[in-house]
Design a protein that fits this description.
The protein has 199 residues and is mainly alpha-helical. It contains nine helices and no strands. This is TetR/AcrR family transcriptional regulator.
Amino acid sequence: MPDIKHFDPDATLETVVRLFWRQGVASTGIQDVVTATGLNRSSLYATFGGKQELYFAALRRYLEQRSQPMFRRLAEDERGLPAVSEFFAGLIEARCSGEYAQWGCMVSNAHAGVENSDPKVRDVLDQHHRELREAMYAALVTAERQDQLAPGADPGASADLLALLAYGVNLRSRAGADAASLRKTVAAALGSLGVRAAA
């Protein structure tokens, strides 16, 4: 007879995402996962594997359900620079207020943690960076087409800079930086690119 699960693996994984996102891998033991999910170890291991497999599943879920929708919206937005500004405004709002304030970004946290020694985790981090950078590039190409960029501004180099700026916002917000200072930094960075405001 097949084993019948008496819990929702999807809801359980979402709980695990929040746990690893808030605490990080190094500070989260399997007992923390057991306590947070209300499941016993054997159920967790049978469904997800060990702690590292569980973390990897949570990281992939974070990428797919939180990061990628934001990247798609940015890449498909036809407004150009206003879309970039709105992306950063939303990022700062999410990182500095509400339920997830000072949690940072699960992916950015992984860049700074011991978990990035796992090649499978590094692959997810690289995928995240590539998709973030491509979304920035798409928005900047749109901005260039609409004459929103200063003469000589390079959408490729600017996309690299803005992707790194997004990581900086994530990490600084986790360390307690306030929204006003982050907005000021974003404005300064956009100005340093020679970007003029869209009409």
